[in-house]
Amino acid sequence: MDHIEPLSATAAAALEVAREAAALAASELGSSRELKDVRLKTPTDLVTRTDHEVERLITRRLLARFPGHAVLGEEGGAAHEAAAGAPRWIIDPIDGTSNFAHGVPWFGISIALEEAGVVRCGVVAVPPLGEFFVAERDRGAYQVGPDGAFVRLRVSPIETINQALVATGLPREPLRSWHVPTILRVAMRALEVRIMGAAAVHLAYVAAGRLHAFWEPGLFPWDVAAGVLLVEEAGGRVTDWRGRPLRMPGGRLLASNGPLHAMMMALLMEPSEGPRGQPARPAVRPARPRARVPRAGAARSRRAPAPRTRRRRRPR
Ligand code: IPD
Ligand code: CA
Question: Cβ < 6 Å from ligand 1: which residues?
Answer without folding.
Answer: 45, 74, 92, 95-97, 169-171, 197-199, 216, 219, 223
